[in-house]
Specification:
six-stranded mixed sheet, 33% helix, globular, alpha/beta, 228 residues, Rossmann fold, four-stranded antiparallel sheet
């Protein structure tokens, strides 16, 4: 479903920083992939390159046999809307909008008729168990609830790929575990391809496969999913 071929990302000119070094890998449809590595190893750069948010300096990223960086800006934006959902560590919710309105935001940029926006957003909130909090603003929600809203927003366009950048980084262990179970359920029950950056090995063990980055290079690939 997703392939990277000789992907390199360099920031700056002189001196420059090599964030990704000649990465070649494949991510299968329906896979749950975890990415780990020390700070500055290129984890988020890799995630955002897969998510068509950062253009690599060299190499090719292919999604469903489409060479995504061969597309123009409008075509890349459409691909993101139709195929990819994002979850960020800091939630990125709009404070003056309700949970329902926050989830509806991606629909304004889609081809979904406006008459369907509220129904689609409520369906996404129900998927994460927060339909009863639809009218609450972020300040009225716990950290775990805010992240659930963020997940619902990432799912509202029915993406086949979900990218999560440290989705439990701002949470206590119990709340983070609830969020990880939710993401794992979306992968197992909905067949969504999940790619997650994490610093926590216990989180990574929920995935099918773990890759480790060091200095922008994949140094290890292993099957890690816990039994049972």
């Amino acid at each position: 479903m997703i392939t990277l071929k000789n992907v390199t990302k360099i920031y700056g000119k002189s001196p420059h920083v090599i964030a990704l070094r000649d990465i070649t890998m494949e991510i299968k449809e329906g896979e749950f992939l975890a990415i780990m590595g020390p700070s500055g190893s290129g984890k988020s750069t890799l995630l955002y390159t897969i998510g068509v948010l950062l253009t690599p300096t060299d190499g090719e990223v292919t999604i469903d046999d489409i060479s995504v960086y061969g597309l123009n800006a409008k075509e890349r934006a459409r691909l993101r809307r139709e195929k990819i959902g994002f979850i960020f560590q800091t939630f990125e919710l709009i404070p003056y909008l309700t949970a329902l309105e926050n989830v509806m935001v991606p629909l304004y940029l889609s081809n979904v008729p406006s008459s369907e926006h509220e129904e689609r957003a409520m369906r996404a909130l129900n998927l994460v168990g927060l339909a009863h909090r639809a009218s609450h603003r972020p300040s009225e929600l716990s950290g775990g609830e805010q992240q659930r809203v963020a997940i619902a927003r990432g799912m509202v366009n029915n993406p086949r790929i979900l990218l999560a950048d440290e989705p439990t980084g701002n949470m206590d262990r119990k709340t983070g575990d609830e969020i990880l179970r939710l993401i794992q359920g979306l992968n197992e029950k909905e067949g969504i391809t999940v790619i997650m950056v994490t610093h926590d090995l216990s989180n990574a063990q929920r995935a099918d496969r773990l890759i480790t980055l060091v200095d922008g290079q994949v140094t290890k690939t292993e099957e890690v999913k816990e039994n049972g």
